[in-house]
Structure prediction request, 160 residues.
Amino acid sequence: MLVINSIERGIVIDHITAGLGARILNYLDIDTSKYTIAFIMNAESATRGRKDVIKIKDVVDLNLTDLGLIDPHATVNIIEDHKVAKKIKLEIPEKVVNIIRCKNPRCVTSVEKAAPHIFHLIDPETMEYRCEYCDDIVSMKGDWQHDIMRKEWLRTKSCE
Prediction:
């Protein structure tokens, strides 16, 4: 039996769809040399069958608003004094900025490197988003890993 101890203070991202935990961890871009992280893949779940779980010790100030884009079924627990202080049910965001990259070569974001990539949700069932500038449609269902911007890409973009 696998035992992962509780944390005194931090974040637990639970009920992640099995296989999506690595994408969430990659998106969060946490410095693993500073923080203790437990990443459990394909754990048994009474309600979901299989799930991933991420525990991050001593971190409570992450921007979690866009995690619903990766897995809207996940829940985030803020832990204080070994207890759940706050429980957040992730949702599909209505608007995302600099998370999805527009791939249309005629889009203003392809020419103007400083232009933010802004997308609006048009269909929650298929998780389709429309680019604010060129109306290009991106579906976040299926293999969309390449459409998610990396934090290091955003840092270099802001330095230009």
